[in-house]
Amino acid sequence: MGDSRVRAADGTDRWSRRGVLAALGVASVATVAGCGGEAGANGTAGGSADSAKVSVTPADGTRQAGFGAPVTVAVSGGTLSAVAVAAADGTRLQGTYNDGRTKWTSSAHPASGTEYTVKTTVDGGGSAHITRFTTKKPGATFVGYFTPEDGSTSGVGMPVSITFTKAVTDRAAVQKAITVTADPDVATAGHWFSDTRLDFRPQAYWKAGTKITLSLRLKDVEGADGVFGTQDKDVTFHIGREQISVVDLKAKSMTVRRDGKEIATYDVSGGDAEHPTWAGKMVISERFEETRMDSTTVGLGDEYDIDDVPHAQRLTTSGTFIHGNYWGSPSLFGTSNTSHGCVGLRDTQGADDPSTPGAKFYKSSIVGDVVEVRRSGEETVNPANGLNGWNMSWADWQAGSAV
Predict the structure, then answer these.
(1) CA 388/CA 369 separation, integer angstroms
(2) Is 54 in contact with 30 (CB distance < 8 Å)?
(3) How many domains does the chain have?
(4) Pathway listed for it (predicted)?
(5) Which of 59, 127, 133, 388 is least crowded, fewest Cβ atoms below 10 Å from its Cβ?
(6) Residue 152, domain member (yes or no)
(7) CATH number of the domain to which 360 belongs
(8) Neighbours of 351 (CB within 10 A)
(9) Can you tell me whether residue 212 is helix, strand or coil?
C-alpha cells in the first residue's frame, strides 16, 4: 500500500503516518505548535495556545492528484489566518473561507499536470505550514478549431464556428466554457449542429465595425467521459463593411449592396433544372483566385473536371460556389441557367482580366459576406451545410443551445 517505516532513535522501526497518507492520496495532517512554540520539522507553524492540526487535500507529496475537485485546507484547534495555493509558474488559486475560518476552499479546480505549493498560516502567527502536490495529466484531450481566424476581418454574416476534435457528450459543460462577446454589445447564442460542431451568432447580421471576442476556457473541461479540453485563450476578430448580394435565378441577375446602397448588378447563370442551386442565405466561407472543380468529389460522376476555375468563392460545404466561368458562351449569362448548381459570372481563363464580372465581384468580396439566392427552384439550403445558420429562425437557433 506504499506504507513506509522510519527508524526511531532507539533503533526500532515505526510506521510513518505521513507516508501512508501521501501514498493513499488523502489529506495531509500536521500538528501546529502553540503560540511561541517552535515550527515542526514538517513546516508546522505557531498558532493558538492549544495545538492545531492542518489538513490539506490533495495530500502532501501526492504525485497523481485529481484535478476535478477544488483544493481544501482545514484546521482543527485553531483558525486559518492565511492560505496561499500557487502553481510553479506563480499562478494562484483564489478561494474562500467558511464563517468560522476553519476551512478554505479554492474557487476553481487546480489545473492538470501542474505542481502546487500550499502555504497555510494558523491564528495569524508563526511560520507557514507548507505542503506540495502535483496533479495528473489527462489521458485523452480535445481541442476546438475555430473560424474566423484571430485578427481577421469578416463580413456581417460570419458566425463563430467551432469544430471539436472529439465528440462532445457533455455539451452544457463545454458551451459554458465558451463565450462570445461583441462591441457594440449584442446578445449571441450557441447552436449545436452535431456533437463536434458548435456555432454562435446574434439574432440578425452583425453590425459593420463590430469587434468580436471568442473566449475559450476549455482547459480541463470534461467534454466526454475521460476526455478533457486543453485550450485557454481569447480570439478577436472584426466585422468590416456590410455587403449583401441577392441572386435572383428567375431573372438570372445578382444585385450587390454595400452598407445598404446598390453598388453593382451582374448577369449570372445558375443551376439547371436537373441541378438547381440551393435557395437561401449563404455565407462565403473560402475564396480562391483559381481552383480545381471535379464532379466526382460532389457525387456527379465524371460530368466535369476543370482545374482552373477563376474567382471561386465557397457557399456550402457540399460544393456550391459562386465563381467565374470562361468555358460557357458569354450569351448564356443573364439568359440561361446551365450549371450543376453553382452560380456563374462571365470571366476569362487565367483569372487575369480585372474588368470581367467574375473578377469584379471577387475583388469586392470578403469571407463572411452574404449571398442570398432566390427563385432557384430548389429548397432552402440546410443550415449545417456551410456557415449558413441564418436560414434558421431565432427561436429554432436558440433551441439548439445546451445552456
Answers:
(1) 11
(2) yes
(3) 3
(4) Cell wall biogenesis; peptidoglycan biosynthesis
(5) 127
(6) yes
(7) 2.40.440.10
(8) 22
(9) strand
pLDDT the model gives residue 2: 42
The Cα 97–Cα 104 span in angstroms is: 4
B/e letters for 278-289, b = 16+ CB within 10 Å, e = fewer, are bbbbbbbbebbe
Residues with catalytic function: 323, 342
Could you tell me the three cell numbers for 230? 486543453
Has residue 179 been placed in a domain?
yes
Same-domain check for residues 203 and 100 = no
Give the cell for residue 319: 460544393
Average pLDDT of each block of 10 consecutive residues along the chain (403 residues)?
42 38 43 36 39 94 96 95 96 97 97 97 82 96 98 98 98 98 98 98 98 98 97 97 98 98 98 96 98 86 86 97 96 96 97 98 98 97 98 98 97
- Asked if 184 and 80 sit in the same domain, the reply is no
Residue 300, number of CB atoms within 10 A of its CB = 14
- Cis ω for the linkage preceding 58 (within 30 of 0): yes
Which residues span the domain enclosing 296?
243-391
CA angle 387–186–282, rounded 5-degree value: 20
Contact 305, 240 (CB under 8 A): no
Report the chain's terminal Cα–Cα distance, integer Å: 44
Is residue 154 domain-resident? yes
